[in-house]
Amino acid sequence: MQASEHPLIAERHPTLPAYQSQAPVSGGTSGSAALLDPLELESLKLIMDASLRVHARHHFFTWTQGLLQDLVKHEVLICALRNTEPMSFRVDSFSTSPLEPALFSNMFLQDTSMVPHIIKTWEENSYRPVVFETGAASPFAQSPLARELNRIGVDTVVTHGTYDAFGKPASLFTFACRAQTMGPRQVYCIELIVPFLHLAWVRTQIDRPAEGASAHPGGAGLLTAREQEILKWIHLGKSNIEIGTILEISPLTVKNHVQKILRKLNVQNRTQAVVKALALRILNN
């Protein structure tokens, strides 16, 4: 059974410069390549430069769900790093949406149909990015991962990774997105960015001592229970007045708590607070 692959392909043309889109699809057909415009090239350079400063999970979250989202829009990024055992992966997922990222990590590990097929296709495609449809028309629509992705409106995944000296996957990065946001340019950008994703992700896996004796692993204890509760409602898009009504406290009290949250997280606004709280796993999302 063949997966339903996205009708997207680009091939390198000898007369075009290196900034050329490429993405594989079924049937061996080909389409025109798309060059990156100056703004996309500048964004790409900024993303690559920022990757060099990623050394912890919350850095990785901020980088992928901030700068990288500007160039490659995605709902979920699933990162898989191979363990010592063959085809055994350590998986983590990232999203700024009110989702449960850990669920997608678990589904990736449990999926015995679509995920192995994606990996096999990636290897057979000479380790180039592969684009698959996951919607109702896909043969793998009922696989664990596809079902969860369809539940949040995702109908396309793009997977690319790195491989070792034996041609086996060292890491895999799956961008779960909506079809209208993924074109040849985005696929080509993924191809360029994945080596930087790999190195940044590996750095986050290195065990380091906590910064300072009073550091709280994963942000635990950084905020009070009330502050975490308020931050949860902020994440769900509630205003100070709405939060006050829900918690039966005044909007002014909510505002004071919000100011304390911003100071403790060392951020400037509510959006940054949510992003950092997700990265530190203060919010379970």
Quick rundown:
The chain is α+β, with helices and mostly antiparallel strands. 43% of the residues lie in helices and 12% in strands.
Q: Your description of this structure?
A:
With 285 residues, the chain is of the alpha+beta class. It has 2 domains: 26-204, Beta-Lactamase; 217-279, Arc Repressor Mutant, subunit A (Orthogonal Bundle), CATH 1.10.10. It is 43% helix and 12% strand. The protein has a 5-stranded antiparallel beta sheet, sandwiched between helices. Strand 4 and strand 5 (169-177) form a beta hairpin. Helix 1 runs parallel beside helix 7, helix 4 packs antiparallel against helix 6 and helix 8 (225-235) crosses helix 11 (270-279). It is globular and about 60 Å long.
